Amino acid sequence: MQSLCPVLQQAVLYTFLGWSFLLSQILDAKSIHTEN
After folding, report:
1. pLDDT at residue number 36
2. Residue range(s) defining the domain that contains residue 11
3. Which of 1, 8, 9, 19 stands the most exposed, by the fewest C-beta atoms within 10 Å?
4. Does the reported pTM lie above 0.70?
5. Looking at beta carbons, which pairs linking 15-23 to residues 24 or more positions away fall under 8 Å?
6. What is the spatial distance between Cα 11 and Cα 2, in angstroms, rounded to a whole number?
7. How far is CA 19 from CA 3, 4, 16, 22, 34, in A?
């Protein structure tokens, strides 16, 4: 079980980074559409 902890932490970290990146891209696209 101890060997799984770092793997789970990395998985959660990359998932969070991926979602934050997607959300930032979506928000940027919305802001561009509202400006136009």
Report:
1. 55
2. 1-36
3. 1
4. no
5. none
6. 15
7. 25, 22, 5, 5, 22
